[in-house]
Prior knowledge:
alpha+beta; Immunoglobulin-like; 3 domains; six-stranded mixed beta sheet; five-stranded mixed beta sheet; 24% helix; 40% strand
Amino acid sequence: MKTKIFGFMVAILLGVLLLPLAGNAITVSPPIIEIEAVRGDVISQILKVRNENTSAVTYYLSAERFIAGGEEGQPQFIGEDIGLSTWLNFPVDSVTIPGGETVEIPFTIAIPNFAGPGGHYAAIFLSTLPPDSVAGGSQVSIAQKIGTLVLVRIAGDIKEGSSVAEFEAVADTFDSLPVDFNLRIENTGNVHVKPMGTILLKNMFGSVAGQVAVNETGGNVLPDQIRKFTPSWVKNPNAVGASSFWGKYREQRENYAFGKYNADLTLAYGTAGKVLTGDASFWVIPWNIIIVNLIILVILVVILYYLVKKYNAWLLTKYGKKSPKSAKK
Length: 329
Protein backbone atom coordinates (compact mmCIF):
# COMPACT_ATOMS: atom_id res chain seq x y z
CA MET A 1 0.00 0.00 0.00
CA LYS A 2 2.82 2.39 0.91
CA THR A 3 4.53 1.58 -2.38
CA LYS A 4 1.39 2.48 -4.35
CA ILE A 5 0.98 5.77 -2.46
CA PHE A 6 4.64 6.62 -3.04
CA GLY A 7 4.34 5.85 -6.75
CA PHE A 8 1.19 7.97 -7.00
CA MET A 9 2.90 10.93 -5.35
CA VAL A 10 5.92 10.60 -7.66
CA ALA A 11 3.61 10.60 -10.69
CA ILE A 12 1.87 13.77 -9.46
CA LEU A 13 5.23 15.45 -8.82
CA LEU A 14 6.49 14.59 -12.31
CA GLY A 15 3.25 15.85 -13.83
CA VAL A 16 3.57 19.18 -12.04
CA LEU A 17 7.19 19.56 -13.12
CA LEU A 18 6.34 18.81 -16.73
CA LEU A 19 3.33 21.14 -16.91
CA PRO A 20 5.41 24.12 -18.07
CA LEU A 21 6.81 22.02 -20.91
CA ALA A 22 3.46 20.65 -22.03
CA GLY A 23 1.78 24.04 -21.79
CA ASN A 24 4.23 25.98 -23.95
CA ALA A 25 4.03 24.43 -27.42
CA ILE A 26 5.45 26.48 -30.28
CA THR A 27 6.22 25.86 -33.94
CA VAL A 28 9.16 27.55 -35.66
CA SER A 29 9.66 27.63 -39.43
CA PRO A 30 11.73 27.09 -41.39
CA PRO A 31 13.57 24.45 -39.34
CA ILE A 32 16.75 24.92 -41.42
CA ILE A 33 18.01 28.05 -43.18
CA GLU A 34 20.73 27.58 -45.82
CA ILE A 35 22.39 30.69 -47.24
CA GLU A 36 25.15 31.48 -49.71
CA ALA A 37 27.02 34.72 -49.05
CA VAL A 38 30.21 36.70 -49.60
CA ARG A 39 32.23 38.75 -47.14
CA GLY A 40 30.56 42.02 -46.26
CA ASP A 41 27.01 40.84 -47.04
CA VAL A 42 24.13 41.80 -44.78
CA ILE A 43 21.36 39.27 -45.32
CA SER A 44 17.79 39.72 -44.11
CA GLN A 45 15.76 36.70 -43.01
CA ILE A 46 12.46 36.00 -41.25
CA LEU A 47 11.44 33.39 -38.69
CA LYS A 48 7.78 32.44 -38.34
CA VAL A 49 6.81 31.44 -34.82
CA ARG A 50 3.38 30.10 -33.86
CA ASN A 51 2.16 29.90 -30.28
CA GLU A 52 0.03 26.75 -30.04
CA ASN A 53 -1.19 27.66 -26.56
CA THR A 54 -4.46 29.39 -25.72
CA SER A 55 -2.73 32.15 -23.74
CA ALA A 56 0.08 34.57 -24.59
CA VAL A 57 3.66 33.43 -23.98
CA THR A 58 6.93 35.36 -24.04
CA TYR A 59 9.88 33.79 -25.84
CA TYR A 60 13.51 34.89 -25.54
CA LEU A 61 15.88 34.87 -28.51
CA SER A 62 19.48 33.65 -28.50
CA ALA A 63 22.05 32.14 -30.86
CA GLU A 64 24.64 29.43 -30.36
CA ARG A 65 27.25 27.64 -32.44
CA PHE A 66 26.73 23.96 -33.24
CA ILE A 67 28.75 21.06 -34.61
CA ALA A 68 27.83 17.56 -35.71
CA GLY A 69 27.01 15.38 -32.73
CA GLY A 70 28.04 11.89 -33.80
CA GLU A 71 27.19 10.19 -37.09
CA GLU A 72 23.41 10.33 -36.91
CA GLY A 73 23.17 13.95 -38.09
CA GLN A 74 22.03 15.40 -34.78
CA PRO A 75 23.49 18.86 -34.02
CA GLN A 76 25.53 19.30 -30.85
CA PHE A 77 25.22 22.72 -29.26
CA ILE A 78 28.49 23.50 -27.54
CA GLY A 79 27.60 26.79 -25.87
CA GLU A 80 30.18 28.88 -27.72
CA ASP A 81 29.20 32.42 -28.60
CA ILE A 82 31.59 32.73 -31.56
CA GLY A 83 31.53 32.78 -35.35
CA LEU A 84 28.15 32.80 -37.05
CA SER A 85 26.28 33.01 -33.74
CA THR A 86 27.74 36.52 -33.25
CA TRP A 87 26.84 37.62 -36.79
CA LEU A 88 23.11 37.15 -36.13
CA ASN A 89 21.29 40.33 -35.11
CA PHE A 90 17.74 40.51 -33.73
CA PRO A 91 15.73 43.73 -33.38
CA VAL A 92 14.41 42.54 -30.01
CA ASP A 93 15.60 40.23 -27.23
CA SER A 94 12.17 38.71 -26.65
CA VAL A 95 8.75 38.51 -28.24
CA THR A 96 5.31 37.96 -26.72
CA ILE A 97 2.96 35.97 -28.94
CA PRO A 98 -0.80 35.79 -28.24
CA GLY A 99 -2.32 32.33 -27.96
CA GLY A 100 -3.05 30.62 -31.27
CA GLU A 101 -1.29 33.29 -33.33
CA THR A 102 1.78 33.42 -35.58
CA VAL A 103 4.30 36.25 -35.69
CA GLU A 104 7.23 36.97 -37.98
CA ILE A 105 10.57 37.77 -36.38
CA PRO A 106 13.00 39.53 -38.73
CA PHE A 107 16.74 39.22 -38.25
CA THR A 108 19.91 39.90 -40.20
CA ILE A 109 23.18 38.09 -40.77
CA ALA A 110 26.10 40.49 -41.12
CA ILE A 111 29.03 38.65 -42.73
CA PRO A 112 32.30 40.27 -41.56
CA ASN A 113 35.12 40.97 -43.97
CA PHE A 114 37.42 38.62 -42.06
CA ALA A 115 35.05 35.63 -42.38
CA GLY A 116 36.77 32.55 -43.75
CA PRO A 117 35.44 30.78 -46.84
CA GLY A 118 33.44 27.62 -46.40
CA GLY A 119 30.72 26.58 -43.98
CA HIS A 120 29.65 28.39 -40.81
CA TYR A 121 26.96 27.04 -38.48
CA ALA A 122 24.73 28.32 -35.70
CA ALA A 123 21.28 27.80 -34.18
CA ILE A 124 18.66 30.39 -33.30
CA PHE A 125 16.85 29.47 -30.08
CA LEU A 126 13.55 30.57 -28.64
CA SER A 127 13.14 29.80 -24.95
CA THR A 128 10.47 30.45 -22.33
CA LEU A 129 13.22 31.66 -19.99
CA PRO A 130 15.95 34.25 -20.60
CA PRO A 131 19.23 32.76 -21.92
CA ASP A 132 21.08 33.57 -18.68
CA SER A 133 18.50 31.66 -16.62
CA VAL A 134 18.59 28.60 -18.89
CA ALA A 135 22.39 28.59 -18.96
CA GLY A 136 22.47 28.60 -15.16
CA GLY A 137 21.10 25.09 -15.16
CA SER A 138 18.63 25.34 -12.25
CA GLN A 139 15.62 25.93 -14.48
CA VAL A 140 16.60 24.06 -17.64
CA SER A 141 14.15 21.24 -16.93
CA ILE A 142 11.14 23.58 -16.91
CA ALA A 143 12.13 25.81 -19.83
CA GLN A 144 11.00 25.03 -23.34
CA LYS A 145 13.66 25.58 -25.97
CA ILE A 146 13.27 25.18 -29.70
CA GLY A 147 15.57 26.25 -32.49
CA THR A 148 16.24 26.77 -36.17
CA LEU A 149 19.56 25.74 -37.71
CA VAL A 150 21.41 28.28 -39.84
CA LEU A 151 24.00 27.07 -42.36
CA VAL A 152 25.97 29.73 -44.21
CA ARG A 153 28.31 29.05 -47.13
CA ILE A 154 30.77 31.89 -47.69
CA ALA A 155 32.35 32.20 -51.14
CA GLY A 156 36.08 31.96 -51.62
CA ASP A 157 38.46 29.03 -51.51
CA ILE A 158 35.69 26.44 -51.29
CA LYS A 159 36.76 22.81 -51.05
CA GLU A 160 34.02 20.31 -51.75
CA GLY A 161 35.34 16.86 -50.98
CA SER A 162 33.66 13.68 -49.80
CA SER A 163 34.28 9.95 -49.80
CA VAL A 164 32.41 6.75 -49.03
CA ALA A 165 33.84 5.60 -45.71
CA GLU A 166 31.60 2.51 -45.64
CA PHE A 167 28.95 0.89 -47.80
CA GLU A 168 27.69 -2.62 -47.10
CA ALA A 169 24.61 -4.64 -46.28
CA VAL A 170 24.18 -5.16 -42.55
CA ALA A 171 24.43 -8.94 -43.09
CA ASP A 172 25.73 -11.35 -45.72
CA THR A 173 22.47 -13.33 -45.88
CA PHE A 174 18.80 -12.43 -45.37
CA ASP A 175 15.70 -14.62 -45.38
CA SER A 176 13.56 -11.84 -46.89
CA LEU A 177 13.44 -8.11 -47.44
CA PRO A 178 14.02 -5.58 -45.96
CA VAL A 179 17.74 -5.45 -46.63
CA ASP A 180 19.31 -2.65 -44.61
CA PHE A 181 22.56 -0.95 -45.59
CA ASN A 182 25.24 0.84 -43.62
CA LEU A 183 26.36 3.93 -45.54
CA ARG A 184 28.86 6.37 -44.03
CA ILE A 185 29.90 9.50 -45.91
CA GLU A 186 32.97 11.48 -44.86
CA ASN A 187 33.22 15.20 -45.66
CA THR A 188 36.85 16.09 -46.34
CA GLY A 189 36.14 19.67 -47.49
CA ASN A 190 35.49 22.96 -45.73
CA VAL A 191 31.78 23.32 -46.50
CA HIS A 192 28.70 21.19 -45.85
CA VAL A 193 27.55 18.85 -48.61
CA LYS A 194 24.29 17.10 -49.32
CA PRO A 195 24.94 13.70 -50.97
CA MET A 196 21.81 12.37 -52.68
CA GLY A 197 21.25 9.49 -55.07
CA THR A 198 20.21 5.87 -55.37
CA ILE A 199 21.18 2.28 -54.72
CA LEU A 200 20.46 0.09 -57.76
CA LEU A 201 19.75 -3.57 -56.96
CA LYS A 202 20.54 -6.25 -59.54
CA ASN A 203 19.84 -9.98 -59.26
CA MET A 204 22.21 -12.82 -60.16
CA PHE A 205 21.18 -12.58 -63.82
CA GLY A 206 22.05 -8.88 -64.03
CA SER A 207 18.44 -7.69 -64.20
CA VAL A 208 17.32 -4.69 -62.15
CA ALA A 209 15.39 -5.93 -59.11
CA GLY A 210 14.83 -2.64 -57.30
CA GLN A 211 16.01 0.84 -56.48
CA VAL A 212 16.45 2.63 -53.17
CA ALA A 213 16.59 6.41 -52.71
CA VAL A 214 19.39 7.73 -50.49
CA ASN A 215 19.05 10.87 -48.37
CA GLU A 216 15.69 11.96 -49.79
CA THR A 217 15.29 14.45 -46.93
CA GLY A 218 18.48 16.29 -47.94
CA GLY A 219 20.57 15.79 -44.82
CA ASN A 220 23.88 17.68 -44.74
CA VAL A 221 27.31 16.34 -43.88
CA LEU A 222 29.38 18.99 -42.09
CA PRO A 223 33.10 19.54 -42.76
CA ASP A 224 35.53 17.06 -41.17
CA GLN A 225 32.61 14.88 -40.11
CA ILE A 226 31.22 11.47 -40.99
CA ARG A 227 27.47 11.00 -41.29
CA LYS A 228 25.73 7.65 -41.32
CA PHE A 229 22.74 6.90 -43.54
CA THR A 230 20.64 3.73 -43.28
CA PRO A 231 18.80 3.14 -46.58
CA SER A 232 16.66 0.02 -46.81
CA TRP A 233 15.33 -2.11 -49.68
CA VAL A 234 11.81 -3.36 -48.99
CA LYS A 235 8.74 -4.07 -51.11
CA ASN A 236 6.01 -4.07 -48.44
CA PRO A 237 7.11 -2.28 -45.25
CA ASN A 238 3.87 -3.30 -43.55
CA ALA A 239 4.76 -7.01 -43.76
CA VAL A 240 7.90 -7.14 -41.63
CA GLY A 241 8.84 -8.17 -38.11
CA ALA A 242 7.09 -11.57 -37.89
CA SER A 243 8.48 -14.18 -35.48
CA SER A 244 6.35 -17.33 -36.01
CA PHE A 245 7.03 -19.79 -38.83
CA TRP A 246 3.89 -18.93 -40.80
CA GLY A 247 4.35 -15.26 -40.03
CA LYS A 248 7.84 -15.41 -41.53
CA TYR A 249 6.41 -17.36 -44.48
CA ARG A 250 3.88 -14.59 -45.21
CA GLU A 251 6.60 -11.97 -44.73
CA GLN A 252 8.83 -13.74 -47.25
CA ARG A 253 5.98 -13.93 -49.76
CA GLU A 254 5.20 -10.21 -49.40
CA ASN A 255 8.90 -9.25 -49.62
CA TYR A 256 10.10 -12.01 -51.88
CA ALA A 257 13.64 -12.15 -53.20
CA PHE A 258 15.94 -15.08 -53.95
CA GLY A 259 19.60 -15.51 -54.77
CA LYS A 260 22.61 -13.23 -54.85
CA TYR A 261 22.16 -9.50 -55.36
CA ASN A 262 24.56 -6.69 -56.14
CA ALA A 263 23.96 -3.15 -54.88
CA ASP A 264 25.45 -0.25 -56.87
CA LEU A 265 25.60 3.09 -55.06
CA THR A 266 25.62 6.41 -56.94
CA LEU A 267 25.48 9.74 -55.10
CA ALA A 268 25.86 13.29 -56.38
CA TYR A 269 26.98 16.22 -54.24
CA GLY A 270 28.38 19.74 -54.47
CA THR A 271 27.84 22.57 -56.92
CA ALA A 272 29.95 20.84 -59.56
CA GLY A 273 27.89 17.65 -59.45
CA LYS A 274 30.63 15.42 -58.09
CA VAL A 275 29.80 11.71 -57.84
CA LEU A 276 30.41 9.09 -55.16
CA THR A 277 30.11 5.38 -55.98
CA GLY A 278 30.23 2.11 -54.09
CA ASP A 279 29.14 -1.51 -54.39
CA ALA A 280 28.06 -4.31 -52.07
CA SER A 281 26.63 -7.81 -52.40
CA PHE A 282 24.41 -10.09 -50.33
CA TRP A 283 22.22 -13.20 -50.51
CA VAL A 284 18.50 -13.59 -49.91
CA ILE A 285 17.37 -17.14 -49.10
CA PRO A 286 13.69 -17.42 -48.07
CA TRP A 287 14.01 -20.58 -45.97
CA ASN A 288 10.38 -20.75 -44.88
CA ILE A 289 9.13 -20.62 -48.47
CA ILE A 290 11.73 -23.22 -49.51
CA ILE A 291 10.68 -25.59 -46.69
CA VAL A 292 6.98 -25.23 -47.50
CA ASN A 293 7.61 -25.72 -51.24
CA LEU A 294 9.74 -28.81 -50.56
CA ILE A 295 6.98 -30.31 -48.40
CA ILE A 296 4.41 -29.59 -51.13
CA LEU A 297 6.74 -31.12 -53.73
CA VAL A 298 7.19 -34.29 -51.67
CA ILE A 299 3.41 -34.57 -51.21
CA LEU A 300 2.85 -34.12 -54.96
CA VAL A 301 5.48 -36.76 -55.78
CA VAL A 302 3.83 -39.23 -53.38
CA ILE A 303 0.40 -38.52 -54.85
CA LEU A 304 1.74 -38.86 -58.40
CA TYR A 305 3.44 -42.16 -57.51
CA TYR A 306 0.22 -43.47 -56.00
CA LEU A 307 -1.82 -42.39 -59.04
CA VAL A 308 0.65 -43.97 -61.48
CA LYS A 309 0.61 -47.18 -59.47
CA LYS A 310 -3.21 -47.27 -59.43
CA TYR A 311 -3.29 -46.53 -63.16
CA ASN A 312 -0.90 -49.40 -63.94
CA ALA A 313 -3.00 -51.73 -61.80
CA TRP A 314 -6.11 -50.63 -63.68
CA LEU A 315 -4.41 -51.33 -67.02
CA LEU A 316 -3.42 -54.82 -65.93
CA THR A 317 -6.94 -55.54 -64.76
CA LYS A 318 -8.51 -54.14 -67.90
CA TYR A 319 -6.46 -56.31 -70.29
CA GLY A 320 -6.75 -59.46 -68.20
CA LYS A 321 -3.09 -59.75 -67.28
CA LYS A 322 -2.07 -61.00 -63.93
CA SER A 323 0.32 -59.05 -61.76
CA PRO A 324 3.82 -60.49 -61.22
CA LYS A 325 2.84 -61.58 -57.68
CA SER A 326 -0.18 -63.49 -58.97
CA ALA A 327 1.97 -65.24 -61.60
CA LYS A 328 4.38 -66.55 -58.98
CA LYS A 329 1.53 -68.09 -57.00
